[in-house]
Amino acid sequence: MVVASSATRRRGGDKNIMWHTYILQSIKNSRLYVGFTDDIQRRLLEHNSGTGGNYTSNNKPFKLIFYESFISKKDATNQEMFYKTGYGREVLKKKLYNYFNNQQ
């Protein structure tokens, strides 16, 4: 008998899933990474283990510095795309003003 993981079951049938747009900061070089997911902890582990893609593999380790949650996957992906624009990066700088200006 094959038992699906809770993540597999949740993705397949749960209509109450939350989607998150998240910002990671590289501990190595302070660069930012913007993404979206339905499981922030899993994605952070994937990025830090090197299975998140070429960019994150080359800039790991990361720490989570910001996230927003949405009921709609489309809203989360739209927010991700916005934060990847020039104006979106400026909005992020304003939202995280104290974080960026109080770093050691």
Structural features:
104 residues; three-stranded antiparallel sheet; GIY-YIG endonuclease
How would you portray this structure in words?
- 48% of the residues lie in helices and 22% in strands.
- By secondary structure, the protein is an alpha+beta fold.
- A 3-stranded antiparallel beta sheet has the order 2-1-3.
- Strand 1 (19-26) and strand 2 form a beta hairpin.
- It is globular.
- The N and C termini lie far apart (53 Å).
Low-confidence stretches: 1-9
- CATH fold name, please? GIY-YIG endonuclease
**Under the CATH scheme, which class?**
Alpha Beta
Strand content: 15-25%
Indicate the overall shape: globular
In the CATH hierarchy, what is the architecture at level 2? 3-Layer(aba) Sandwich
Order of helices and strands: HEEHHEHHH
Q: Provide the domain count.
A: 1
Distance between the termini: 53 Å
Secondary-structure class: alpha+beta
Averaged pLDDT: 87
Main β-sheet: number of strands, strand sense, barrel status?
Answer: 3 strands, antiparallel
Radius of gyration: 15 Å
Number of DSSP helical runs: 6
Fraction in helix:
40-55%
Cross-sheet strand order for the largest sheet: 2-1-3
Q: Tally the beta strands.
A: 3
